[in-house]
Structure formats: structure tokens, C-alpha cells
Specification:
single chain, 2 helices, 4 strands, Alpha-Beta Plaits, alpha+beta
């Protein structure tokens, strides 16, 4: 892929099912070459984890990653793309 074909995006993830964390981490590991950084915040009062993942990848790769994570039971994922 050329550099121009890549997009910078942020995937916001909310995990309500702790049992899904191991699978989610495995998916993120599979896409590690595209991940710029990741930050996770446990929100114990609500029993959820909030994770943001910054990526630089072709749009199809970003969509596939977000889709795989969002299909996990008890996990929601949304993607925001930059204009660059």
C-alpha cells in the first residue's frame, strides 16, 4: 500500500463483557503493525472499560479491525477518520 492510501483513524471501544477482553486483545495483536497507540481506562463504578486505539492503515483494514471488535459479545466499537 502506498502512504497516500492509508488513513489515520481512532477506534473507540467500550467493553461491557470482561470475558471478551482476551479475544479483543488477540484481534488487536493481529493488527499491531497498524496501531499507533492505545489507551485503556477502566471505569469501575460502571463496570466497563473504555479503550481508544489510534491507527494508520488502509480504510479496508481499519473497517475490518473495527468490525471484528464490534462483533464481540458485550463490546461496542466506533471509528472516526481524520481528513489526512
Amino acid at each position: 500500500m502506498t502512504e497516500e492510501a492509508k488513513r489515520v483513524a481512532l477506534i473507540g471501544i467500550v467493553v461491557e463483557n470482561p470475558a471478551a477482553v482476551e479475544r479483543m486483545n488477540a484481534i488487536l495483536h493481529d493488527y499491531r503493525e497498524y496501531i499507533i497507540g492505545r489507551m485503556g481506562l477502566p471505569y469501575r463504578e460502571k463496570g466497563v472499560s473504555i479503550i481508544s486505539v489510534a491507527v494508520d492503515a488502509p480504510a479496508g483494514v481499519i473497517s475490518a479491525l473495527s468490525g471484528k471488535i464490534g462483533r464481540l459479545e458485550g463490546v461496542a466499537a466506533k471509528t472516526v477518520y481524520s481528513s489526512v
